[in-house]
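User: C-alpha cells in, sequence out, please.
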C-alpha cells in the first residue's frame, strides 16, 4: 500500500489552535496541522483531531469548535497547545481567552479565528474530521501585517499585506503531548 510520507514532506501547511468546551464546562485545545476549507457555498471548514488527543474527547461532546490562526510571534502559544496535554495541564490558565459561542474558548491575541457549529464527524483513520459551519469570526479588520517577501505578489494588493502564518516548519522542534 502506498503511503504519503514523500508527498507530505513537501508540504508546509499553516498550523491552527482548535478549542472546544463540552456541555459540562470541560475545556480543551490543541495544535492542528490537518485542516482546510472544504466548501465555499455553504461555507464549511474541516479540522482533523487525533483520536489519542484530549481535545478530541472534549470535541466529541462539544457543539462548536473555534479555529485560531497563529503567526510566528505566537510560538509560545503554539508550543503550549502542541506539546502539553490537557490530560495533565490547564492550558487556558496560561493564555488570555474569553468564552465565545457555546462557551468555546477564543484566544485573545489570535490574528484571526472563527467558531463553527459541528455539522458532522468524519472517520479518517487515526484522526476524525469535524465539519464546521461558521457562526462567528474575528477579528474582522483588514490585514495589517508586514508585506510579504514573495516577488510574485503585486505591491499594494491585499495579499501583499497578509501577515505570515505559523507553519508546520515553525513547529519542527516540538515534541507532541501525545502520540499521533
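Assistant: Sequence out:
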Amino acid at each position: 500500500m502506498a503511503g504519503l510520507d514523500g508527498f507530505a514532506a513537501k508540504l508546509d501547511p499553516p498550523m491552527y489552535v482548535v478549542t472546544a468546551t463540552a456541555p459540562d464546562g470541560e475545556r480543551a485545545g490543541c495544535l492542528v496541522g490537518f485542516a482546510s476549507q472544504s466548501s465555499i457555498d455553504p461555507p464549511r471548514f474541516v479540522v482533523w483531531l487525533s483520536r489519542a488527543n484530549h481535545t478530541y474527547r472534549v470535541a466529541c461532546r462539544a457543539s462548536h469548535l473555534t479555529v485560531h490562526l497563529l503567526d510566528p510571534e505566537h510560538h509560545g502559544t503554539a508550543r503550549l497547545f502542541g506539546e502539553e496535554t490537557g490530560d495533565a495541564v490547564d492550558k487556558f490558565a496560561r493564555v488570555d481567552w474569553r468564552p465565545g459561542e457555546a462557551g468555546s474558548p477564543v484566544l485573545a491575541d489570535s490574528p484571526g479565528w472563527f467558531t463553527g457549529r459541528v455539522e458532522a464527524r468524519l472517520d479518517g483513520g487515526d484522526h476524525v474530521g469535524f465539519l464546521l459551519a461558521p457562526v462567528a469570526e474575528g477579528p474582522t479588520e483588514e490585514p495589517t501585517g508586514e508585506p510579504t517577501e514573495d516577488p510574485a505578489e503585486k505591491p499594494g494588493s491585499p495579499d501583499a499585506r497578509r501577515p505570515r502564518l505559523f507553519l508546520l516548519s515553525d513547529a519542527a522542534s516540538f515534541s507532541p503531548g501525545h502520540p499521533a
